[in-house]
Amino acid sequence: MSIGTISRWSGMPIDRTRQRTVTLNQLLLGVVALMSALIAFAMEAITAVSFLLGGLLLITVLTGAAIAVPWNRIHPLWSALLPIGDILAVALMRESNPSAGFALLWIFPAMWIAAAFGLLGLVVANVLTNGVYWLTILIDPRQSMAPVVFLVPMTIIAISTSTYIATRRATAQRALLDTQARLLARAVERARRQEDTVTEVLDAVDFGVIRFGADGDESVRNEAHARMQRMLAPDGRRRGVYASDGITELASDAIPLARARRGEIFDGDMVWHGEPGKGRRAFSVTSRALEGRTGERVGGILVSRDVTDEVMALRAREDLVASVSHELRTPLTSILGYLELVLDGDDLSSSARRGLEVAERNAARLLDIIADLLVVSADDHGGVRLSIKAENASVDGIVRASVEALVPRAAERDIVLDATGVEQVTAFVDPLRVRQVVDNVIGNAVKYNVEHGRVEIGVTTDADHAWIVVRDHGHGISAEELPRLFERFFRADAVRNTSIHGSGLGLSISRDIVRAHGGEISVQSELGRGTTFIIRLPIREKGRNS
Asked: I want to staple 30 with a disulfide (CB 3.0 to 4.6 A). Which of 63, 144, 185, 381 is the partner?
């Protein structure tokens, strides 16, 4: 069975490096020896033909063995027999005429042994070649001891040593390259596995992902995006894209995909695919830029998520809230009117009057909640937004009036309202809207405070802003719930489990009012240590300097 057959059957590659090395080295020596002999014959420089023919015959036999023997399948030391035999063959050829220069052929087996067998081979090669050389010199009295005699062994030693050094260096470089190749192969395999993992993850998620190159061409697109495209264009015809209001159709260069290709960055932009009516879908689209190591833009990512069900659920809730609020507002207004008429009378007993006052207070609170719901509903539907009629108003006067109005409620729980930190401040604000914010913040400080607690109210100013600070010493708010405090309808877990009533809209509306003024409201809180609200408002009209 041949080596090629074994290789094909086993599926493993056969290393033929040693076979090629042995064959090439022996063929090279054989060709050079034959050409040297022919030149010597032509120049009639041969004095002992039998030695020359004997040397050539031995080299020919060794060359045939180099070709015929499968050196890659036997121990490497067996291949050393060939250069050793070559040393003897060159010695025979040299005996045909010592001055013909055949001694230089010893360079080939010396280089071969030094390259193939390392330092030991270098020593053995030089010992053999120089030993045979000096032996022939001593035996044959015809050879003189001229200085040129020493040149041949020195040349053989120098060339074989150089060969040994070059081989060692090449072996080290080859080992380094093999190590780097293995590392590269592992890195490629790791990168391939990571790519497969990323592809599997991207295909598993339910939102579309597109990766763009720096030129805007798509390089990655997951299965979810392909499903969305098939759903939006089942017949292959792309439908119109509309803005978040669902009415304004977007131009081709204004759709999120085109904007992302240009390198624009946006977050959570909502668009509608399809004409108004049934079958259209809402998508929340986000675009992010990808940067290289030096900060240059190398591409971008576009993420799109189908939010149709969420949008429709929110609209259904808002429609329900608006409908219920409108239906309740009219009878509540009538109830409050009749309660006021009854309370204006003088024929009520004290117990009846207290009961009616409680009813009036709760009806008024319910009417305030309904008003808040109507404001939120109108804002969500793109209706009438918060109207701000700003003027130069006394912020400290607004705060003092709010404190005065809330003193009775605070007194019911023996809570002290400390307004000693209120300074005289004038700002360009809507007094009614700011009073609504202050009433809500101070009211919450009273409502969620502890019995016999304390609320500290302060007003101050700097060069550009008026600052209102309300600090209580109540239960505080947890760090997990603090970021959600200004969300609509949000109420903390500790509050929902008590008898304290609320809609979860007051702080959301207050923040909208403050931001409509160009200001901001923030909160700091710690469980068991109380809560502090900080309101920042502009003291002058926007665009006008003092």
From this structure: 63
pTM: 0.44
pLDDT value at 466 more than 90 = yes
Amino acid at 248: T
Asked if residue 483 has pLDDT above 50, the reply is yes
Question: Which residue's entry shows tokens 């009533």?
Answer: 501
Contact 103, 133 (CB under 8 A): yes
| C-alpha span between 195 and 203 (Å, rounded) | 12
Q: Is 104 exposed, middle or buried (0-12, 13-18, 19+ CB in 10 A)?
A: middle
Q: Give the DSSP letter of residue 528.
A: T
CA distances, 536 to each of 85, 168, 432 (Å):
101, 78, 16
Nearest-angstrom CA–CA distance, 486 and 383? 21
The three-class DSSP label of residue 283 is strand
Using DSSP's 3-state secondary structure scheme, residue 237 falls into coil
Q: How far apart are CA 40 and CA 98, in angstroms?
A: 12
Helical (H) or strand (E) element with 422: strand 416-422
